[in-house]
Design a protein that fits this description.
By secondary structure, the chain is α+β, with helices and mostly antiparallel strands. It is built from 25 helices and 26 strands. Strands 8-10-7-11-9-12-13 form a 7-stranded mixed beta sheet. A 7-stranded mixed beta sheet has the order 21-23-20-24-22-25-26. Strand 12 and strand 13 form a beta hairpin.
């Protein structure tokens, strides 16, 4: 059998994702038939998930640099400057990932390990993790695959709360959407954030000092098993209905909690001793990934002895030990001279071997001046290759072909505001998300100021003794995505920015997760390309710090989100935005306060309802003109809202998005205090009723008549839309919608459909 045939057989026998051409390139690098470990190692490191081989060239379009950026994309998490407090500079650490395929196959375990992985990314930068968000996309629970969709939704939420609540990290919400395009492939995008003193930032590479003295690699955490073997390549291929469940890892939040405390103790020890070190979590590719990346990014080589790796299953092959993605593990590069002291902290002080059978800290490798990746197992050499080959990856220049969607408007647009508002409030996308949020602990750590649903963004006060608050929100609209991929990217940024601004916080950074189908298909790659261009354009327009853009400091690309039958998800760029408010007591929620106050409309209503909740819920139309992205106007509106919040004249602020200004008004009323219910009386006699449903970006602001009069130079995008009333209703001359009639149904709609499966309505 010649080499080409051997490689072809190895790919088939080992179910590798790499192409024959990639395998031949690997064989050329090592100058022979690759070993099983080398095949699996490169299969993982050259996968779409790890190497970004289809997307890397286009990701360069995203603005990643700004004066506030400390660490941009490339390490485990991004870091931006946040505030000064108590003589120290404090930085915000953020990370954004996806766990889509695992969550479709094993919803509980897949979602739990998604949280576990993203939290580790933030811990690894030396930060204390202070929050997480979950941006979830499910199929139609009332559609043809409804039973399966409901089960996946329940499982994902269970995985999130079981892991996150036990870990002690507050869940700050996110968003949840339902679309039949996710019937075969749900999306579980996760965000984690934390804070670190600027002088205590940790990096995920071996420090330069390793060129002068001997450094070793310490493996910390659970013993290695076979879970997650092939996980990275599993995430880089079409999703089969009966996918291998062994590619999904198993999380242990209780061990993670102790391990996190032990890690912080070790980091304190190293910083106090002035020792330079590298620290990285074990995610995709397991030991093989962490060892090769730590070495390569430090311009060193490494020799790893798999015989020293604690395992929970005997006689595991070398490729499984090296590439399995067992959860709750870290890699730590430290000088050999202090390795014993580090091991004592984990194994003696924190007694990790007693917490979980086989857990602990062990030296498994030695960094070398010669830049080779060498692995030993059972006394044999099972891998030997220049380390740069592993991490350099592959870049593909994919073909792309425009595939524009229909922008045909409906023949008629009948308007019955009370009935239309009721339909929207009780629709899958208009109903309260409290049945989802209620499972999450949003208040652990005691730093949450606005919980999910109370404001457009969650607001926390994460640094003890400091008044600076952080607002965070994540967004993405698949209904826009299927009509205009560019605007899907731009509006994902715009909506997340508006949500943060509505609380009074200034956006300082963003992350993204780009979820698409098969990049080898020209129309899908065009969707991806346009989505990236949309995000880039919006970030350049919506910078709020000098001339800088809004920087993307962390993110993820998730391709092959489709079934084996080829049904791809709608283009789904999802963006999270982070904002700073210097005094959290000035932050603003969405609840109406005082009868007689004015309701100010920020942003003219445009006749652009493509993809709107009104079109799809009230008249069953899926086309239409999507709202244009007007970046300069968006920024001017945001700056006005921020000035109002800073001046203390905004009593409530809510952005206009799904359902338009009429639904925004209803949500402000529903969020008002139960013992002081409020409503809004619109003054819209001269407005075309259909514009009540327009999702053109904007805001509604509650302020007093005196505050309105005091605004000397009113921008042209402002108008008085109505007044706050003491009636729990949304009304206008000629119609009224009593919100009490639908309050309970609105609050319980998702619970009845997803958890109680009352689907006959």
């Amino acid at each position: 059998m010649n080499l080409r045939d051997e490689l072809k057989e190895a790919i088939r026998h080992r179910s590798l994702a790499m192409t024959l051409e990639e395998a031949e390139k690997l064989a050329g690098y090592v100058g022979r038939m690759p070993t099983p470990l080398e095949l699996h190692l490169f299969d993982t490191m050259w996968s779409e998930h790890c190497s970004y081989k289809s997307s890397r060239s286009l990701l360069k379009l995203l603005p990643t640099h700004a004066s506030s950026v400390v660490v941009g994309p490339g390490e485990d998490a991004g870091i931006v400057k946040f505030t000064e407090h108590d003589g120290y500079s404090w930085d915000l650490v953020v990370a954004h990932e996806s766990h889509n395929h695992p969550s479709q196959v094993l919803p509980v375990e897949g979602a739990a390990t998604g949280i576990g992985g993203i939290v580790r990314d933030v811990y690894c930068m030396g930060a204390r993790v202070t929050g997480s968000l979950d941006l979830l996309r499910f199929g139609d629970p009332l559609g043809n695959s409804g039973e399966k969709t409901r089960a996946i939704c329940r499982g994902v939420v269970e995985g999130i709360w079981k892991y996150g609540n036990a870990l002690g990290v507050p869940n700050l919400g996110g968003d949840t959407r339902f679309h039949r395009g996710y019937d075969d492939n749900c999306l579980v995008n996760v965000v984690s954030l934390g804070f670190v003193r600027h002088d205590r930032i940790v990096h995920s590479f071996v420090p330069a000092e390793a060129h002068e003295e001997q450094y070793v690699l310490i493996l910390v955490g659970k013993p290695t098993d076979d879970t997650g073997f092939g996980g990275a390549t599993f995430a880089s291929a079409d999703l089969e209905d009966e996918s291998e469940k062994g590619a999904v890892q198993v999380a242990d939040p209780f061990l993670k909690r102790v391990l996190s405390e032990a890690n912080m103790n070790v980091l304190d020890f190293l910083f106090e001793r002035g020792i330079k070190f590298g620290f990285k979590d074990l995610g995709a590719g397991g030991i093989a990934c962490v060892t090769s990346e730590l070495a390569a990014h430090g311009n060193l080589g490494i020799e790893v002895n798999l015989d020293l790796v604690p395992v929970s299953i005997p006689d595991l092959p070398s490729e499984v030990i090296a590439c399995a993605e067992t959860q709750e593990r870290y890699g730590l590069a430290v000088p050999k001279r202090i390795a014993a002291e580090v091991l004592d902290i984990y194994n003696e002080k924190y007694e990790m071997p007693r917490l979980f059978p086989g857990a602990g800290a062990t030296v498994i490798g030695t960094f070398t001046a010669e830049p080779f990746y060498r692995v030993l197992h059972c006394g044999r050499e099972v891998a030997n290759t220049p380390v740069e080959y592993i991490t350099e990856g592959i870049i593909y220049d994919r073909d792309w072909k425009p595939s524009p969607a229909s922008v045909i408007e409906p023949d008629s647009r009948p308007c019955d505001p009370p009935e239309d508002l009721k339909r929207m409030l009780l629709s899958l996308d208009g109903a309260s998300r409290s049945p989802v949020w209620s499972y999450y602990d949003s208040e652990v750590q005691g730093s949450t100021h606005f919980r999910p649903g109370e404001a457009d963004a969650c607001v926390t006060v994460p640094i003890p003794g400091c008044r600076a608050g952080l607002a965070v929100s994540g967004d993405g609209n698949p209904w826009i995505g299927e009509l205009d991929p560019f605007l899907a990217g731009a509006h994902a940024v715009g909506e997340a920015v508006r949500n943060v601004v509505a609380t009074g916080a200034t956006p300082i950074a963003a992350t993204d997760c780009l979820n698409y189908g098969n990049p080898e298909k020209a129309d899908v790659f065009w969707q991806f390309r346009r989505g990236v261009e949309g995000i880039a354009a919006a970030c350049r327009e919506l910078g709020f710090e000098g001339e800088d853009p809004l920087p993307i400091v962390s993110g993820n690309v998730s391709f092959y989100n489709q079934s084996s039958q080829g049904g791809a998800i709608p283009p789904s760029p999802i963006v999270a935005v982070f904002g700073r408010i210097d005094d959290f007591t000035k932050s603003t929620d969405i609840s109406l306060k005082t009868p007689g106050d004015l309701v100010i409309l920020v942003g003219e209503r445009m006749d652009e309802l493509g993809g709107s909740l009104y079109y799809r819920t009230c008249i069953d139309h899926r086309g239409g003109r999507v709202p244009a992205f007007r970046g300069k106007l968006e920024r001017e509106m945001a700056l006005f809202v921020l000035r109002c919040c800073e001046a203390g004249i905004s009593k409530a602020v809510h952005d206009i998005s799904d359902g338009g200004m009429i639904l925004a008004a209803a949500e402000m009323a529903i969020t008002s205090r139960p013992d002081a219910r409020r409503g809004i009386l619109f003054d819209t006699d001269e407005m075309d009723p259909v514009l009540l449903y327009s999702e053109t970006p904007g805001y509604l602001i509650e302020m007093s008549q005196e505050s309105w009069n005091a605004i000397e130079s009113k921008p042209g995008f402002l108008s008085v839309a109505g007044k706050v009333t003491d009636e729990f209703s949304i009304a206008a001359p000629g119609w009224k919608m009593d919100l009490l009639e639908i309050l309970e149904d609105h609050a319980s709609r998702l619970d009845r459909i997803i958890w109680r499966e009352e689907i006959t309505e």
